[in-house]
Amino acid sequence: MAIVEAILCSPRNFSQDVVPKEAALETKDFANFDIFEGFSDDQLQALLTTLKPERFDFVQNDTLCTVGDKADRLWLITNGLLSIRQKGQDEVTVVTRKGPCVIGEQGLIDDAGERTATIVAIESGTAFVVHRAALETAGDSSVMAHLWRNLARIVSRKLGEATNRRAQLIVQGDKSKSLLNRFVNSHALTSVGDNLTLSEKYADEA
Fold it and tell me: Which residues make Cβ contacts (< 8 Å) with residue 91, sequence separation at least 6?
């Protein structure tokens, strides 16, 4: 019995295809996602029919993707909390995302894109997978332009947030260096500075 419970509770990896749950796609469930901003209910319903979002539930410690995976999909996170992690000397969380939100869109910009971060669930939640192939044939030229413009805005907003985080890290780092300079030797200070520079790099890539 204990072995069965352990298997059922083991973290899952959704890097590959998930098994979608059968569920009716209602526009009200998707209206809060930035990717669909500006579409009418009828347009959104038509989009959902074409995109065929696949619903799945995740639990704590489940992995949606790992560094190096092919970037061939994005996720619409309905609810739940996720950790975006990158590796330096150790794997660290560079940002968290809480539903409703879109995750994974940056990797779709490059046709040969690979994931630059690992996404792990902190809290249980529900998400929908949308594949690149569906996004690239979502509708006529005006629908496609509108959809990808929304994706560009999401990317732009996240890059702005990353810039702000980096600026905060730089200010924090300058203050820390000034304080540490009073108490540590130059060799130790150089080591601290290297670690702060690594943190700034993470802020850029989140």
Answer: 85, 118
- Pairwise CA distance, residues 77 & 127, whole Å: 4
Contact at 8 Å (CB) between 125 and 81?
Answer: yes
Tell me what the pLDDT averaged over the chain comes to. Answer: 79
With a cut of 60, say whether residue 150 has pLDDT above it. Answer: yes
Is the pLDDT reported for residue 102 higher than 50? yes
User: Between these two residues, 123 and 23, which has the higher pLDDT value?
Assistant: 123
Q: What residue spans of the chain are helical by DSSP H?
A: 2-9, 41-51, 132-135, 141-180, 186-205
Q: Is the CB of residue 67 less than 8 Å from the CB of residue 89?
A: no
- Of 42, 36, 25, 45, give the one whose Cα is nearest residue 102: 36
Q: What is the DSSP letter of 183?
A: T
